[in-house]
Amino acid sequence: MKAAVAAFSGKGIETARAVARLLGAEIYVPARYARCGLRVIEPSLNEWAGARFADCGALVFVSACGIAVRAIAPFVRSKAEDPAVVVLDEAGDNVISLLSGHLGGANELAKEIAAAVGGRAVITTATDVRGVTAVDSWAVAHDCAVENVHAVKEISSAALAGREIGVAVTDELTPAPWPVTLWLRPRVLVLGVGCKRGVEFSSLAEAAEEFLEESGVSPLSLAAVASIDIKKDEAAIIKLAGKYKVPFVTYGAEALNGARGRFSYSERVERETGVFFIFGESGEGDGRRLRLRAGRGARRGGRRPHEGKDDLSGRDSRPCEAQEEGSMRLMAAGLDQRESALETRERFAFTASAAEDFMREMKGRGVESVLLSTCNRTELFVFADEDPRDILREARGDADFFFFEGAGAVRHVFEVAAGLRSQIPVEDQILGQMKNALAAARSVGSCGPTLSRLFQGAISAGKDIRTEFKKRPHETSVAQRAVRKVREALGGLEGADALVIGSGEIGMLCASMLAAEGASVTMTLHRRRKDGMKPPKGVRLISYDDRYEAAKSSRVIVGATASPHYVLLAKDYKAPAGGAVIADLAVPRDIEPAIGNFPNVTLYDMDSLGCDALPADLRAAIERIMDEHISRFYEWHHIHECMPMIEEIRSFAEREMAAELSGSAYDSDAVREASRNMINKLLFSLKEKVDMDMAKNCYSALAKAAKG
């Protein structure tokens, strides 16, 4: 496991050396302590921490807890993804497991470090304090992945209370045996892949996902991706292994032909590769199952810009413009339910995999980007010199896009996170959708520090706003709005037959709400959920193929799938004798619009669910919270923007000082450190004495002078 150790004092560096020896890690220190064998924390502690979050399995801070917390706070995502973070004081007396104690291994790491430095491990997780086995620690120890991480807390609470808990250790996607089931996926499967040379990654990834689903196994149980050795440099397969975060291994024809199992013979494959079979299942490899399958063919399934100004300071600061001669700009463009028709939004809707492919392409073009695509919006945020409207037109055709840049784009991102641009004001789903969009952008490498910090700040503001908003009764999702509309149309839901088509997040939410209203709810299950989550108690599951039969008797129908085409066609749908109320919550739409013309059938789509206005006082409170967080983003960006100039000045001072004192008795490292400390004090105190615009002008002039 790759690890990094940060220390901030002379005494702390000595303690850090002991930790680094234990972990085989590098030590990072502030520039003033830079010397042989030590690396510098740069360009800032926050950005250093963000980089280490991405490439390390463990971070160790020899510092106060507050330093570590502030450094890692913008990058903490979930217990399933975060690295282990351990903090110890400079004397090594207390070694604290700070983050990802179980899944990340921070608890065990703290114990190991404490033993190495003669300190005391401080473990605060309740299961460890009470001496109860933590299920996520058990999973790590037995090389299992936790599929539904959200259930860990409930399972651990039950264990602490002495109640019976349900933990399923299996690679198979099966119905949950207990009301709350923690799914642990042992890494015991190898996915064998064969494909044509040069196959597109998107096609291969789709085929692999479908194959795993059809086979009824969890992708988290993959231990490796494998193929014949002539495919060792096939880019799509290498990328597929990266997607599943497993190694890519290859075998020669002789080894494959010696495998025991059930296979399908192919004369052509034998002629071209020397392997007798094309696909099948083997018991070879330490009890792991090797699945080989042939590759599949590819499937394919503006208006006037808004001017942006800095409404915090009253000046046109354009905070996110040029780093290189004014070419890089922060911009946002897209469509939402407020100004674009549903038919248009359907054309610009992206599935999760399509959004990742899109952002991956943007990375290849040098465009820092985040794509947010939901039922009510498709928005592209870029920090680049390419107009996002042109990029969207190139991808999906022309439309009347909204557009923001500079300070206007900053505020727009915060308004989206606040829920001010949602159909249901301050609804909850948008925050999760923004988190997912940011995570996807990070995973493909399309999101740099500017957009990452902007989105993190907006999401943080959104959380604070919802804390304020919870004080008032309100609807928090389009699902709540839809259920209310249906209830009002029927005069009540007690005893009504309801059909929910789709078992995703919105489908589950609707099923739960309808059941709570007394409806008899049936839900289709087209694909098993990856997290193992099952519908609420009392909801009946049927095959997706049986939806038309169930619809015949359903007074209530909810469409909530991610299908690119209609799932209920007018020619096949038969309404019950008493009529039906249908809520189509999908984009693209699930229900063919012609069904809305049937006698006694009421059809609501996303555009007909309505939109409420916020009370003026609540809007003002939300704006105040937003302004506070936007100010923080600007503060960060101004410093981030100046760092290249500051570094240029520091380097110049070091060179000049070293040249002036060359040949003297002074130690060159000490001279370099002294000059760097002096320049740091001057430059960073400057921004405290004058306003930021003047400080930036000073930095710029000094940097130009340093360049000569």
Could you name the key traits of this structure?
single chain; 708 residues; alpha/beta; 7-stranded mixed beta sheet; 6-stranded mixed beta sheet; 26 strands; 18% strand
Question: Topology, pairings included?
Answer:
Elements: E1 3-7, H1 10-23, E2 26-29, E3 39-40, H2 45-55, E4 58-62, H3 65-72, E5 84-88, E6 94-99, H4 106-117, E7 120-122, H5 126-130, H6 135-141, E8 144-146, H7 150-160, E9 166-169, E10 181-186, E11 189-193, H8 201-215, E12 222-228, H9 235-243, E13 248-251, H10 253-257, E14 261-265, H11 267-273, E15 277-282, E16 289-293, E17 329-336, H12 342-347, H13 352-364, E18 368-373, E19 377-384, H14 388-396, E20 402-405, H15 407-418, H16 429-444, H17 449-469, H18 478-490, E21 497-501, H19 505-516, E22 520-525, E23 540-543, H20 547-551, E24 556-559, E25 580-584, E26 601-604, H21 616-660, H22 668-689, H23 692-707
Parallel strand pairs: 1-2, 1-4, 2-3, 4-5, 6-7, 9-10, 11-12, 11-16, 12-13, 21-22, 21-24, 22-23, 24-25, 25-26
Antiparallel strand pairs: 5-6, 8-10, 14-15, 15-16, 17-19, 17-20, 18-19
Helix pairs in contact: 1-4, 8-9, 13-16, 15-17, 16-17, 17-21, 18-19, 21-22, 21-23, 22-23
Give the fraction of residues assigned to helices: 40-55%
Strand content: 15-25%
Q: How widely separated are the two ends? A: 45 Å
Number of helices: 23
Molecular shape: globular
Total strand count, please?
26
Low-confidence stretches: 281-327
Q: Largest sheet at a glance?
A: 7 strands, mixed
Mean of residue pLDDT values = 80
Structural class: alpha/beta
Gyration radius, in Å: 29 Å
Widest sheet, order of strands: 3-2-1-4-5-6-7
